[in-house]
Design brief:
single chain; 409 residues; alpha+beta; Conserved hypothetical protein from pyrococcus furiosus pfu- 392566-001, domain 2; 2 domains; nine-stranded mixed sheet; six-stranded antiparallel sheet; 14 helices; 21 strands; 34% helix; 25% strand
Length: 409
């Protein structure tokens, strides 16, 4: 099972009130405009290391020099003793409050296919190379691999709630309104209990597949220095584990009426008005597959598959994949019924982004999806299959720079 250990976390040595100025989201959810905003916010913002604006290899060299400079100046400094770090995130989704607890720890990197840490997504060569070059330049993990596990004995929940009853070591609220509170756990008995609770279960990658692939390559090429990486562990059955859908923005698509005609033979169709109503209707559907199409005018249609729609999928495809809306979408609906090529598909991880894009006429049509259940993610991972790209969006993300794991200290 996953081997987890405490570590001396590198942390920003600034007052809590300044943390919103220096922390940022993970690299893969930062747009160019938002990166510019973070650059302007504070010259110490971790985005200057996480996602440098300088192109090419010079950008990685610049990130490394910036990171080492901050260490030398004491802006980033290690805690005096090793610890596990409990992170509480309090947030809202569609007006409903949530609270998620997880632990940041160093975890041993295992070779591909060993079976203690289970992925469920393909990774892209470009992103892997980018993260690897950054890791070599800074020799530290700014962001964690997001892992979920079955807290079957309730050990994690009990220990986490006990720790969270005390005062936090630091806290801040990010740009999305998510409140973060962090406790450094140094008590040996608590650490042992958490190691037993987390380390006795298989861990499934929720987010951070490129970081995990990068850690595996680094361990293979660099030896002992790459033996450990930074991971965040949270129970998969906790109510605070929120999975949002990745919606699709179609740059080329048939008209809504043409789409109705193409879908009518395999779907029950009903009209919807606006992306929000479409998302709500899709989320409430009990059909085997369900999604909605919405035009910039706001006109839309909810499509709920009849049982015979599954015949559109390739023969012999894995049962775990056949259960996914995204697999059905990319194997059947887009290529066979709507004739939309992959290069005409973009992704939106929030309903707000969909609404803004539609309002500005930034796409021909939006395809609104429902969330992928955690059990489907686990089934795909257990079957050693890979989901289509952008099938899940675990919310909220863990900030970059919250607690940094050094590879050489």
């Amino acid at each position: 099972m996953p081997d987890i250990q405490p570590f001396r976390g590198l942390r920003y040595r600034v007052p809590d009130a300044l943390l919103p100025k220096v922390l940022c989201p993970p690299y893969d959810v930062i747009s160019s405009a938002y990166r510019d905003e973070l650059y302007a916010r504070d010259p110490r913002n971790i985005v200057r290391v996480e996602l440098s604006r300088t192109p090419g290899d010079a950008g990685y060299a610049e990130a490394g020099a910036t990171f080492r400079g901050w260490l030398a100046a004491g802006l980033l400094a290690p805690d005096p003793e090793p610890a596990l770090y409990l992170v509480e995130q309090s947030f809202e989704v569609e007006g409903r409050p949530y609270r998620r607890l997880g632990v940041l720890a160093r975890t041993r990197v295992e070779p591909p296919g060993q079976g203690r840490v289970m992925p469920h997504e393909h990774t892209s060569k470009e992103a892997r190379e980018d993260r690897y070059k950054l890791l070599k330049a800074i020799r530290a993990n700014l962001s964690s691999i997001f892992l979920m596990f079955a807290d079957t004995r309730g050990v994690f929940a009990r220990e986490a709630e006990r720790v969270a009853a005390g005062p936090a070591d630091f806290e801040y609220t990010d740009d999305g309104g998510v409140r973060h509170r962090v406790w450094a756990i140094r008590d040996g008995a608590t650490i042992s209990a958490l190691q037993s609770g987390v380390g006795s279960e298989i861990a499934y990658i929720a987010d951070g597949h490129h970081r995990w692939a990068t850690a595996q390559r680094y361990a293979q090429e660099m030896g002992a220095e790459g033996a450990w990486t930074l991971a965040y562990f949270t129970p998969m059955d906790a109510p605070g584990l929120v999975v949002l859908p990745y919606h699709r923005l179609l740059d080329r698509a048939p008209s809504l009426e043409e789409a109705r005609g193409a879908l009518a033979s395999a779907f029950e169709l009903s009209g919807v008005q606006g992306a929000a109503a479409a998302a709500d209707a899709a989320a409430r559907s009990k059909a085997p597959y369900a999604f909605a199409l919405v035009e910039p005018s706001g006109d839309g249609v909810l499509a709920q598959a009849r049982p015979e729609a599954e015949e559109l999928l390739p023969a012999g495809s894995a049962p775990s994949l056949r259960a996914l809306d995204t697999f059905f979408l990319h194997q059947a609906v887009l290529p066979k019924l709507l004739h939309v090529p992959e290069d005409a598909v973009r992704f939106a991880h929030s309903l707000g982004e969909v609404e803004e894009t539609l309002a500005s006429g930034g796409c021909r049509m939006a395809l609104v999806l429902r969330p992928t259940p955690v059990r489907h993610i686990v089934a795909v991972a257990d079957a050693r299959e890979s989901m289509p790209a952008k099938s899940t969006f675990f919310h909220p993300k863990l900030p970059s720079g919250l607690v940094i794991h050094s590879l050489h200290g």
